[in-house]
């Protein structure tokens, strides 16, 4: 039986997700419905992607009986409210990153998933890429000895994009792209909580972070360094340095196709898209869709690749970084 998907939100990421789905066997995955707050947008989207059903409200999707999982692709300021709507309706949910605006909201979503006994995953698609799977395998067999330092960079000029710069839209480098650097560090250190976090950054006039540098110290004298910016392009790679060698994930590190282990390079090519994409390497969203399918087939309520505990820790670290850098959202006082 195919996994039946319901898409929530008819924006850019839902478009890319739908295109990625076309690279998977139709016997495994079907998008059966698209829901938008605008019926017109939903219908246009359905026509473009060959989706049989369109809804003009999220509530209709929440009440739908012919879906196995909801892909939540709305703006992250809405993840908490709309996510709770689906979870309370007993729906499995794959929620786009960042999971929510702060760790309080994330814990609310997780509590609702547990109460309703449904699957929930933050869509950190990076974790599902073959490159990341290989990184985890190499680390497990200590291929580069003991890890001493992890570096991750992500910079992308986005000051012209309103959702990146406006506080009301949950803007800033941290929640949009910094999250990828931090999740990579947590993956390398197996979801361990850092002993210390030091962050400094510069803000835009709107009060969101433009560029941030973070240094974290972990147990056993291990360190991590992250730099991210929405004002400038950075190398966008990630390097793990150990006592016996190094692992380098070439840019774009958040959706990588090239891995270099002690100077030996391996390519992991992606399938070509059938329609133009909005974001880099988006056919790689297929990996997270397949990860969700496998979890549902096994009856799991969370993904071992991106456990809910990792999402909580990730958001708690982001809360602390925002505190140090001075970014406050209205959601923080709710």
TrEMBL record:
<feature type="domain" description="Gfo/Idh/MocA-like oxidoreductase N-terminal">
    <location>
        <begin position="4"/>
        <end position="121"/>
    </location>
</feature>
<dbReference type="InterPro" id="IPR050984">
    <property type="entry name" value="Gfo/Idh/MocA_domain"/>
</dbReference>
<dbReference type="Pfam" id="PF22725">
    <property type="entry name" value="GFO_IDH_MocA_C3"/>
</dbReference>
<dbReference type="GO" id="GO:0047115">
    <property type="term" value="F:trans-1,2-dihydrobenzene-1,2-diol dehydrogenase activity"/>
</dbReference>
<keyword id="KW-0560">Oxidoreductase</keyword>
<comment type="similarity">
    <text>Belongs to the Gfo/Idh/MocA family.</text>
</comment>
<protein>
    <recommendedName>
        <fullName>Trans-1,2-dihydrobenzene-1,2-diol dehydrogenase</fullName>
        <ecNumber>1.1.1.179</ecNumber>
        <ecNumber>1.3.1.20</ecNumber>
    </recommendedName>
</protein>
<dbReference type="GO" id="GO:0047837">
    <property type="term" value="F:D-xylose 1-dehydrogenase (NADP+) activity"/>
</dbReference>
<dbReference type="InterPro" id="IPR036291">
    <property type="entry name" value="NAD(P)-bd_dom_sf"/>
</dbReference>
<feature type="domain" description="GFO/IDH/MocA-like oxidoreductase">
    <location>
        <begin position="133"/>
        <end position="247"/>
    </location>
</feature>
<dbReference type="InterPro" id="IPR000683">
    <property type="entry name" value="Gfo/Idh/MocA-like_OxRdtase_N"/>
</dbReference>
<dbReference type="GO" id="GO:0000166">
    <property type="term" value="F:nucleotide binding"/>
</dbReference>
<dbReference type="Pfam" id="PF01408">
    <property type="entry name" value="GFO_IDH_MocA"/>
</dbReference>
<dbReference type="InterPro" id="IPR055170">
    <property type="entry name" value="GFO_IDH_MocA-like_dom"/>
</dbReference>
């Amino acid at each position: 039986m195919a996994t039946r998907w319901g898409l929530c939100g008819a924006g850019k990421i839902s478009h890319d997700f739908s295109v990625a789905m076309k690279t998977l066997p139709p016997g495994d995955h079907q998008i059966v419905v698209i829901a938008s707050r605008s019926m017109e947008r939903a219908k246009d989207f359905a026509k473009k992607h060959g989706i049989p059903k369109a809804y003009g409200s999220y509530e209709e999707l929440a009440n739908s009986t012919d879906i196995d999982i909801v892909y939540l692709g709305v703006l992250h300021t809405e993840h908490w409210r709309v996510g709770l709507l689906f979870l309370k309706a007993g729906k499995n949910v794959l929620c786009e990153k960042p999971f929510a605006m702060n760790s309080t909201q994330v814990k609310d979503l997780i509590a609702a998933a547990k109460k309703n006994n449904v699957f929930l995953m933050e869509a950190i698609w990076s974790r599902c890429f073959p490159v990341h799977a290989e990184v985890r395998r190499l680390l497990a067999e200590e291929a580069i000895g003991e890890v001493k330092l992890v570096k991750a960079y992500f910079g992308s000029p986005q000051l012209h994009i309103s959702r990146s710069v406006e506080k009301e839209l949950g803007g800033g480098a941290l929640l949009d792209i910094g999250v990828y650097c931090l999740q990579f560090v947590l993956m390398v250190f197996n979801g361990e909580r850092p002993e210390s976090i030091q962050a400094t950054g510069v803000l835009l006039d709107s009060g969101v972070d433009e560029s941030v540098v973070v240094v974290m110290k972990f147990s056993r004298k291990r360190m991590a360094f992250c730099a991210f910016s929405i004002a400038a392009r950075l190398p966008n790679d990630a390097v793990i340095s150990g006592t016996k060698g190094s692992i380098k994930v070439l840019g774009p590190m958040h959706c990588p196709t090239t891995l270099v282990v002690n100077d030996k390079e391996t390519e992991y090519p992606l399938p070509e898209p059938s329609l133009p994409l909005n974001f880099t390497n988006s056919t790689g969203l297929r990996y997270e869709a397949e990860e969700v399918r496998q979890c549902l087939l096994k009856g799991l309520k969370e993904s071992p690749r991106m456990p809910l505990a990792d999402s909580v820790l990730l958001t708690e670290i982001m809360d602390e970084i925002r505190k140090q850098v001075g970014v406050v959202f209205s959601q923080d006082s709710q």
